[in-house]
């Protein structure tokens, strides 16, 4: 089974997390995974295997939950997350060109992270700000009424 990490990690965070739970059962799995992710930035294989051993929750069950929910990441994440809308309002206002501009500028596909670990790139159904179409979010910030040139400028302003 591959949880996706080859690095040796500090397991003291896991100790701290598990010590906040008593009589751990499968019902605690999601809150534990959330805490692991917020501490390590993602769900490292080594930490999940160790957690399986310490809690007695089967690794296959942990893996099943971790892959089922979109909120969990099994690979290290980039520093910033770009969410690009592929909804109808954005689509008719040039969304596909924005997606192409991001792909070509960063040399990645949706669902991927740039090699320098600076950006994650995701497509979402609607960002709820259709009046800004076409729109993207980077982390918690919205950028609307975009053009391919504007989006490249915005990406270059991040470090
Ligand atoms: S369709 Fe793009 S924000 Fe709603």
What is the strand and helix layout of this fold?
Layout: H1 12-19, H2 29-40, H3 45-55, H4 59-68, E1 80-85, H5 88-92, H6 95-106, E2 119-124, E3 136-138, E4 141-143, H7 148-156
Parallel strand pairs: 1-2
Antiparallel strand pairs: 1-3, 3-4
Overview of the structural elements:
The protein has about 160 residues and is α+β, with helices and mostly antiparallel strands. The protein has 2 domains: about 10-70, no CATH class; about 80-155, Glutaredoxin (3-Layer(aba) Sandwich). The protein is built from 7 helices and 4 strands, in the order ααααβααβββα. The chain has helices at about 10-20, 30-40, 45-55, 60-70, 90, 95-105, 150-155; strands at about 80-85, 120-125, 135-140, 140-145. It has a 4-stranded mixed β-sheet, with helices on one face. Strand 3 and strand 4 form a beta hairpin. Helix 1 (about 10-20) packs antiparallel against helix 2 and helix 6 packs parallel to helix 7 (about 150-155). The longest helix is centred in the N-terminal third of the chain and has 12 residues, at about 30-40. The protein is elongated. The two termini are about 35 Å apart. Mean pLDDT is about 90; it is low at about 1-5. Bound molecules: FE2/S2 (inorganic) cluster. FE2/S2 (inorganic) cluster (FES) binds near residues 89, 133 and 135.
Summarize this entry quickly:
By secondary structure, this protein is α+β, with helices and mostly antiparallel strands.
């Amino acid at each position: 089974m591959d949880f996706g990490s080859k690095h040796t990690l500090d397991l003291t965070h896991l100790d701290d997390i598990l010590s906040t739970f008593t009589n751990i059962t499968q019902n605690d799995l999601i809150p534990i995974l959330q805490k692991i992710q917020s501490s390590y930035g993602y769900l490292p294989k080594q930490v999940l295997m160790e957690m399986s051993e310490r809690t007695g929750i089967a690794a296959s069950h942990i893996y099943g939950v971790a892959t089922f929910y979109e909120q969990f990441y099994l690979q290290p994440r980039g520093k910033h997350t770009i969410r690009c809308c592929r909804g109808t309002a954005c689509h008719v206002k040039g969304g596909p060109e924005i997606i192409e501009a991001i792909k070509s500028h960063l040399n990645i596909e949706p669902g991927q992270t740039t090699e320098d670990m600076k950006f994650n790139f995701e497509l979402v159904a609607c960002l709820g700000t259709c009046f800004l179409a076409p729109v993207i979010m980077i982390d918690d910030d919205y950028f609307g009424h975009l053009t391919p040139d504007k989006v490249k400028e915005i990406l270059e302003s991040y470090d």
